[in-house]
Amino acid sequence: MATEVKETESAGKEIDFTACDEICEKYRDWKGATIPVLQQVQEAYGYLFSELVERIADNLNMSAHQIYGVITFYAQFYTKPRGKYVIRVCRGTACHVQGSGRISEVVCEEFGIKNGETSADLKFTLEEVSCIGACGMAPVIMINNKTYGNLKPEEARKIFRDYAELQG
Amino acid sequence: MSYTTDHVEVHVCMGTAGVASGGHEVMEALEAEFTKRGLKNAESKERNCAAKQTGCRGLCARDVLIDVYIPGKDPVTYEHVNAEMVPTIVEEHIVGGNIVEKWAAKADYFQFYDKQKRYVLADCGRVDPESLEDYIKLGGYEAIKKALTMTPEQVIDEVKKSGLRGRGGGGFPTGLKWTFCRNSPGDHKYLICNADEGDPGAFMDRSIIEGNPHAVIEGMLIAGYAIGCDEGYIYCRAEYPLAIVRVIKAIKDAEAAGILGEKVFGTDFHFKLKLKEGAGAFVCGEETALIASIEGERGMPRPRPPFPAVKGLWQKPSNVNNVETFANLPAILLNGSEWYANIGTEKSKGTKIFALSGKVKSTGLVEVPMGITVRELIYDVGGGIPKKRKFKAVQLGGPSGGCLTPDHLETPIDYDSLIAAGAMMGSGGVVVMDETNCMVNVAHFFLTFTQRESCGKCIPCRIGTKTMLDILTRIITGQGREEDIDLLLEVGNDIKTASLCGLGQTAPNPVLTTVKYFRHEYEAHIRNKKCPARECAELIEFVVIDDRCKKCGICKKACPVDAITWEKGTVAYIDHAKCVKCRECIVNCPFNAID
Fold it and tell me: Which of B18, B113, B418, B562 has the CA that lies 20 to 30 A from B30?
């Protein structure tokens, strides 16, 4: 089942803010830098935990709530850790009419996670996305950066099991 | 195809679908095979072979597609190519001169292109998107050079005379839009390319950028010069990583070649271009929301006026156009407005790219002249409905659009005819549905999307879409009430009238058109607690109809949870205790024998 993961990473650990500071520095004189800064910091740290958000706010001379306003508005910012493998199930129209809803269900059957959730072992995250833009091969999923198209539910199940068997 | 080469060239489709189907592996296999046989960089032209990546040519359902160009001969296309097939193709065709007929594209492949007119997509599938030289070799950047010999007013005039209308969906005359921004006071103006294509079911912008990024840059240069902008942004969805990589490379290469930056082609025109990645919000396709997002804010729309042409990015005059609009410009400038105005209908000029998907044989990206009928698009270009099923409806224009029915098959596809029929061009998504698709379910699907993507700023959209979604959920789960249909119409019309931006103003469209054309399906859900298309799981009984069952056992094979008992020569039986209502049996049964 999905876990409630703490929003902070601080628990007894020193956080190395070097990467975060460098990214902010790079954008110091940019107008409208919030989104690229958040994208790159998230890329570097995996997700945007509260200490990071405060650090970014200090760096950019903004308030943390302004930054949270941006984070919560866009689908691609995360305040919780995500799985090693992010399964993006396309829920675009073409995929919908070709039965992609069923593929989300298969993920749920295999790993017990629903849309937006991460498995307890931090291996898988399920993310239903609006359109991957490969409608010609619907239904489509992406696992990290690899795209799989023309999927049948049972083929998808096999792919998921293959990933589950990967070590680490 | 007029593309010629002086050596053997194999073009590999490396759009997203091409890559997903194994494009990289095919490229590698070709390279390896050429090296092994000493066919790379050979002295003699007949022995000099090169593999080249190209963008999407449209028929994604047949990927990986490759074209083999041998000097002096017609190109040959192979479909569904994988790495194992490569040695045979090289051996028999390239070395031996005999086409491998069993893998070569047949008549049905070419039928897909027969009624198309590919101008915007002409070079997608021919040009290497990561090569500036390749683009220039095919005549790239000649249009901006020509534009720079004209006055900006002459360029705008040319675009006005061409009749080009915005391809993002609204269809506003492009030249007129430019005039507003050009005439707006201020010496620093911005040009923005809207590549935040978020419509589920549409991917032409992605394919253009992935397949021919320099064409978009060239279009932006033309527009920038005409309007008087010195800075441009391409706002691209972060969900399109390949497009982003390619456009960044294209910008860098163009800068290095003096095409972007100070003194474009040595003239007094300066234009710098930046890429801005979106962060996942459908509403950012709306121009004022997009501008807010570039400024680093929550991407919420604001009331207009003032229009961006007056107060846009950083409060400066700005002009926003869609990717496809920009990509149309080089051809208009080069061939002239008259040439362009001769394509299409009286009020919708040129071609339009559609993403054809759903229950149609040839899914993919098509470019057709405006005015083509719905029937031609689905049956001639798309090859019709697979599995001998019946055509039921086509959703045009994504969540902003509407559904059309078999009665509309002769409707010409242009901005005005579609609106008259209750749909709209939108961004060009065309999703075909057959009798197994439930229209209430489709309406529910779109409302789920718009409700989730509503930015929440204005109440009609925020509360209204939620209300409509709740009603639809009720109906598809068998809890529908008699008054629900009227309620949907009432709330829907209110949202359309009172919403702040295009998202809310069009969100009810899928519901309103499905009620209009498929009211009986809504009624069947509400009154009879039945889903005629057998898609809404809560309303299906999941029993085998004995006299329809042909005792074939396909359903048993399809069932993922072993809920079906069947033996050779017996009627299948569904165990309700085990059944998870996944619909696999219904989808796979060729005889409609499960109710």
Answer: B113
What does the alpha-carbon distance between residue B74 and residue B52 come to, in Å, rounded to a whole number? 17
Query: Is A135 within 8 Å of B201 when comparing Cβ atoms?
Result: yes
Domain total in chain A: 2
% of chain B beyond a pLDDT of 70: 99
A91 and A158 share one domain: yes
Number of domains in chain B: 5
Omega before B306 within 30 of 0, i.e. cis: yes
Mean pLDDT score, B492-518: 96
User: Which of B114, B131, B153 is the last residue in one of the domains?
Assistant: B114
Nearest CA in chain A to B210: A133
CB contact under 8 A, B61 and A137: yes
Top-confidence residue, B450 or A99: B450
Q: How confident is the model at residue B20 (pLDDT cuts 50, 70, 90)?
A: confident
Tell me the mean pLDDT in the region B212-222.
98
How large a percentage of chain B has pLDDT more than 90? 82
Residue A80 resides in a domain: no
For residue B51, the distance in angstroms to the closest alpha carbon of chain A comes to 23
The whole-angstrom distance between A116's CA and the closest CA on chain B is 14
- Distance of alpha carbon B76 from alpha carbon B97, whole angstroms: 11
A20 is in an annotated binding site: no
- To which H or E segment does residue B351 belong? strand B351-358
How many beta carbons lie within 10 A of that of residue B81, not counting itself? 27
Q: Cα B293 to chain center, whole Å?
A: 23
Residues of A in contact with B241 (CB under 8 A): 145
Closest residue in B to A66 (Cα–Cα): B297
Q: Which of A4-8, B317-321, B478-482, B566-570 has the lowest mean pLDDT?
A: A4-8
pLDDT of residue A2: 45
pLDDT tens-digit profile of B77-136?
999 999 999 999 999 999 999 999 999 999 989 999 999 999 999 998 889 999 999 999
Distance between CA B11 and CA B55 in Å, rounded?
A: 9
> Which parts of chain A are beta strand (E)?
85-90, 124-129, 141-143, 146-148
Most A CBs within 10 Å, among B298, B454, B503, to test the A interface = B298
Question: Measured between beta carbons, which residues in chain B are less than 8 angstroms from residue A38?
Answer: 279
Cβ–Cβ below 8 Å for B582 and A38: no
